[in-house]
Amino acid sequence: MTPMGRIAGFPVRPGLFDVNGAMALPNGVSFTVHTHFGTSCELLLYYEGEEEPYAVLPFPEEYKIGDVYSMIVFGLDIEKFEYAYRVGGPYEPERGMIFNKRSVLLDPYARVVTRQGRWGERRSRGYRARVVKDIFDWGDMPQSSRELSDLVIYELHVRGFTQHPTSGVEHRGTFAGLKEKIPYLKELGINAVELMPIFAFDETMNSREKDGHRLLDYWGYNSIGFFAPNTNYISAKEYNREGTELKELIRELHENGIEVILDVVFNHTAEGNEHGPTFCFKGFDNKVYYMLTPDGNYYNFSGCGNTLNCNHPIVHQLILECLRYWTVSYRVDGFRFDLASILGRNVDGSPISNPPLLRSLAYDPILSKVKLIAEAWDAGGLYQVGRFPASKRWAEWNGRYRDALRSFLKGENHAAKEAAWSIGGSGDLYGDHHQGDHEEYAGYNSSVNFFTCHDGFSLYDLYAYNEKHNENNGWNNTDGSDNNRSWNCGAEGETDDPEVLKLRFQMIRNACTILMCSRGTPMFLAGDEFGNTQYGNNNSYCHDNEISWLNWELLEKNRELFEFFKFMIAYRHKHPVIRKILPGAVCGMDPIHAHDVDADKVMIPDGARTFGMSFAGYDRESGRDDIVYVAINSFWEDVRITLPKVYCSGGWYLSVNTSGDGEGRYFYRKGEEVRIEGEFIMRPRSVAVFTVREF
């Protein structure tokens, strides 16, 4: 046993070199960090709220193995201190090394980040960590075994979901507030939430004033630490309990059949470029953690000032450990990777054909059952939708689906064939030509379909604005996408015109129906189900106000739309043939097919404005064929369609008609459906869904 020494008055000995971060032990704390180019390291201990450390403990050289410093400090009460580091080394910016022994550095493996203060309060720069104990009991809760295509994903911002005074929750804008809304989520019928970034971030970092309003880094895509929940989303101070409120939220979501997917940002950090602060990775090993140009500046494939050097073995290890940690300690069900193409870039920024990091994540035994979803592009122009490496294990946000369906629904007749491909699961993108051994993620498990997400218009705004209206962002309306493929239905923005409003809500129902009747995994933005608006802002990243908050008064105002979403989500859950390939139908219909106006014609002509998609298969669970037909008319006039012939003891029944029956009815529950004999008149700009029922 190594003899105990004493540093700064504390008994110490070499620590746990293979356990990164700070780990509480029965009689002390093991502190472990590493730096490749650094030459010295100090541990700083602080009392809460104090600017200067009450103890500085240099790591002796004999407490170092390889590049790793590790020291157990005895006699510490983990509830009474915070910690940070200082690292010495060469200052040679042209070579990418910017060590400064005066810089106070956050532990890259910190489980809790302190000095974040109350939401929106300006704070002094520099962050510290706390030592935590994981005392949460998950019981015997099993990991979800659902396929990705069985999910309906609901993307939300933890603060914005309940911060509005109309939310009716006690703990607005927090994990606890979201937990109070679980009965609502269950009623809606979604079975997965995708949480916009919940890792520690500083919303005040780039705050500024615009017309008397304060703009913040509201979305959270500027990570400070990857292992710590954002303390501003916690309703009560937790001190040294490890994310208890978040864990209670996840446990209750799971108990209600709802999976949790985290939006994670491993493409950059909040340290920015050469003009940004140094509070963590720059100070430990700038040259290791970031992609640097030959002259020591920062590559900016993220659009945020720096790019994480993901395929460097050290960064690779950190990301893998981070995802394993969230999977084990927080029981997270999946991860959506922001600007995921960066994860496949080499140290010089060039794309790698078989990136080591992506292979590790795909084959890691702890991560083998979690969902991995890529935003398969980045700000450097690398667009990999349908070509993301190791894609049979990875799913992708299908940007092509979004673009094709937005274009077709607004009446662009060149988009029909692309729209049909997309509804059918984008087989040309996600067929069997992808490399990899994870066959279960081929095809319908690879495409995450969406019309809207946090980045862009809400669904209501998609049909209320021809142009973005980001003037309040402070960039003269130059930020945000100009390629929205939106349509205001006859009036820009707010209007009292009943015909315009009627058409807008019909277009929303069209989008919802197609989304829920497309092969792949549907995802929509929180609030779309009751017509939430961002007032035409398609890049609301900086707004902590009513532009970004959900206005829950709209739930009652647009209750009819909410009920429609509920029905369509339930319809999707009841018809597995939409979600996946089933055994051949007894009636002999093809598993999936596109149809012309006359369904006997299975080729969509060029310039088509109306077409249908059929899904057919034998559902072993129900013991009968499951057959669905979706007809879409983007034309502004009536169109007579002919339904496919049914060679079985059943016929077609109308389940959904987004144009309504004239009395405000847009869907029909089982037993209430309308029998259709062969032909049907599609009203202008409408979608109809038909289901085969036995007579």
Summarize this structure as a short list of keywords or feature phrases.
695 residues; alpha/beta; Immunoglobulin-like; TIM Barrel; 3 domains; 19% helix; 21% strand
Describe this structure in a few short sentences.
The protein is an alpha/beta fold. It contains 14 helices and 31 strands.
Structure notes:
- The chain has 695 residues and is an alpha/beta fold.
- The chain is built from 14 helices and 31 strands.
- Helix 8 packs across helix 9 and helix 11 runs parallel beside helix 13.
- The relative contact order is 0.08.
Shape: elongated
Major sheet strand order: 14-15-18-19-20-21-22-23
CATH architecture of the largest domain: Alpha-Beta Barrel
Report the CATH superfamily of the largest domain.
Glycosidases
CATH topology of the largest domain: TIM Barrel
Number of domains: 3
Fraction in helix? 10-25%
Question: How many strand elements?
Answer: 31
| DSSP summary: helix tally | 14
Query: End-to-end distance, in Å?
Result: 81 Å
Radius of gyration: 27 Å
Structural class by helix and strand composition: alpha/beta
Which CATH first-tier class of the largest domain would you pick? Alpha Beta
